[in-house]
Amino acid sequence: MLEKLIAIAYNLLNVQKELSVKFSKKYSLLVLSLLVVACSSTKSPAPAINATGVAPEAAAQSTVKMVEVSPLDDPKSPLANRSVYFEFDNFQVKSSDAALIGAHAKYLSTHSTAKVRLEGNADERGGREYNLALGQKRSEAVKKSLELLGVNKDSIEAVSFGKEKPKDAGHTEEAWAANRRVDIVYVTR
User: How is the beta sheet containing 83-85 ordered, strand by strand?
Assistant: First the structure.
């Protein structure tokens, strides 16, 4: 751009010489001032941007504060999973759920004010009383697992809803499997 402006100014000076304009000094001053103005208006370089997509100056002046997220609210935390599933007509905790129960036990052991309600559930097959008893046995099995891992028994309440609170209202094996569970509900954190 600057090269073009210099070429234009040079051409204008040549035209002035050829035409022998009366006001050549004023004309020369005008061309020269245009050239100075054009040269003095330079673009400022774009600010450097760091890996987060923010200019370092802007990052230093940011008013955003870091907020601590409870592991209970973090979807990436193992504590986000709060259901233990069971086989049909069974109340034994599966070994595949040991890590899940262990994570909740660790949280409950380190947070003395935290309390949970273990809500036992069953699928729709079977009678009302039978499913209430099965749901209770399931919640008691998870309670015992938590206690064996060091959780204070006063921090845990085991209840049963039987088939009254299905997670999936369908009538398929997948729906029934989703309903055979114990939900870990944090009453206090």
Answer: 83-85, 181-188, 115-121, 156-162
Q: Is the pLDDT of residue 17 over 80?
A: no
Q: Residue 25: how many CA atoms within 13 Å on its side-chain side? A: 0
Apex CA 19: angle with CA 14 and CA 22, to 5°? 110
Strand partners, 117: 157, 185
CATH number at residue 129: 3.30.1330.60
pLDDT at 12: 53
Integer Cα distance of 113 and 133 in angstroms: 29
Residue 17 lies in a domain: yes
pTM for this entry? 0.66
Show the tokens assigned to 4: 């073009």
Domain hosting 26: range is 2-41
Burial class (CB in 10 A: 0-12, 13-18, 19+), 117: middle
DSSP per-residue codes, 79-145: GG--EEE--TT--PPPGGGHHHHHHHHHHHHH-TT-EEEEEEE--SSS-HHHHHHHHHHHHHHHHHH
